[in-house]
């Protein structure tokens, strides 16, 4: 997978060449200020030398679990699993078409199983990325931005403390590389902005987790969202998040039922001003494999300096 970025860069260059043919037909593109989705990247970048901070808060409550076959089972009535996830997404514009970003995360996990309860808090894995906008939006062509992201294993991933019901595990232990493209297109007649992400995460090196040599499979991600400006500075959000990862190799053997996947729906309402935006909403895990079925309350504020 050393050359996995080559197809993505080739696609970006090819679209750039095609887009140049539209140069004489370019018109002013409607660019509303909106908060953006909760998770899906937006192709527009922050302006040169501008700096933005975006705290995000997610309160996840597990109503049940999807097993390896995708079958749902609810938690016993007296058991629970829930989590507070706090992220701080920061952006800085290096140029008009390049930005760098970083995102530390803090988790507080809670669980109760057969009368035993536990709570733990700690840093999750750390994300940093660089994004390049290679194609500006035109009348017919969406804005297109490439992404390269690194996830560093700053969260705890092994040697769970006895009696804490795995609440102290906050990371995967792997250094991940993510490559992808983001697309954004505004449609003025219906005052709506559409977003799409196509992402691939690769873990190039094996990881030892509690003495077990672990090789993670690729993770494929497709995220899509729309924002509809229905009244002055207010907008409605709809978002679908799909991702899947294949089974892992443990000590060299492909191990069944170690992969996972999920499909999550988000909705929310946003409010926007020139230098700040806010978004509150709700997320629900619709289906998945080897994952929690969560109901989530989410909120974020974006402040640009």
SSE topology sketch:
Layout: H1 5-20, E1 51-66, E2 72-74, E3 80-93, E4 98-103, E5 105-113, E6 116-123, E7 126-135, E8 143-152, E9 176-187, E10 192-202, E11 207-209, E12 212-215, E13 219-231, E14 234-245, E15 249-250, E16 253-254, E17 260-272, E18 276-289, E19 291-304
Please outline what is shown here.
This protein has a single domain, classed as Porin (Beta Barrel).
Write a structural description.
This protein is mainly beta and 305 residues long. It has one domain: monomeric porin ompg (Porin), CATH 2.40.160. The protein contains 1 helix and 19 strands. The chain has one helix at 5-20; strands at 51-66, 72-74, 80-93, 98-103, 105-113, 116-123, 126-135, 143-152, 176-187, 192-202, 207-209, 212-215, 219-231, 234-245, 249-250, 253-254, 260-272, 276-289, 291-304. The strands form 2 sheets. Strands 1-3-4-7-8-9-10-13-14-17-18-19 form a 12-stranded antiparallel barrel. A 4-stranded antiparallel beta sheet has the order 11-12-15-16, with no helix packed on it. It is globular and about 55 Å long.
């Amino acid at each position: 997978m050393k050359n996995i970025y080559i197809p993505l860069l080739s696609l970006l260059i090819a679209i750039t060449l095609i887009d140049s043919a539209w140069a004489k037909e370019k018109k002013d593109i409607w660019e509303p200020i909106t908060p953006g989705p909760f998770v899906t990247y937006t192709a527009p970048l922050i302006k040169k030398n501008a700096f933005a901070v975006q705290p995000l808060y997610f309160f996840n409550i597990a109503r049940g679990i999807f097993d390896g076959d995708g079958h749902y089972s609810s938690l016993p009535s007296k058991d629970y699993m829930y989590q507070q996830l706090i992220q701080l997404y920061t952006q800085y514009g290096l140029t008009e078409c390049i930005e760098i970003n970083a995102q530390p995360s803090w988790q507080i996990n809670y669980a109760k199983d057969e009368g035993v309860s536990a709570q733990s808090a700690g840093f999750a894995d750390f994300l940093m990325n660089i994004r390049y906008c290679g194609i500006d939006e035109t009348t017919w062509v969406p804005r297109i931005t490439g992404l390269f992201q690194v996830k560093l294993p700053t969260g705890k991933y092994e040697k769970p403390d006895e009696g804490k019901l795995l609440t102290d595990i906050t990371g995967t232990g792997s250094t991940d590389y993510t490559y992808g493209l983001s697309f954004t297109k505004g449609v003025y007649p219906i005052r709506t902005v559409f977003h799409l992400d196509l992402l691939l995460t690769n873990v190039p090196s094996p990881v030892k987790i509690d003495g077990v040599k672990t090789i993670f499979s690729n993770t494929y991600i497709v995220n899509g969202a729309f924002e509809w400006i229905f009244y002055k500075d207010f907008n409605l959000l709809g978002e679908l998040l799909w991702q899947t990862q294949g089974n892992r190799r443990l000590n060299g053997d492909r191990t069944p039922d170690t992969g996972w996947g999920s499909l999550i729906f988000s909705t929310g309402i946003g409010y926007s001003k020139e230098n700040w935006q806010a978004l509150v909403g709700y997320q629900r895990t619709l289906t998945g494999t080897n994952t929690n079925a969560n109901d989530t309350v989410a909120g974020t504020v974006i402040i640009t300096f």
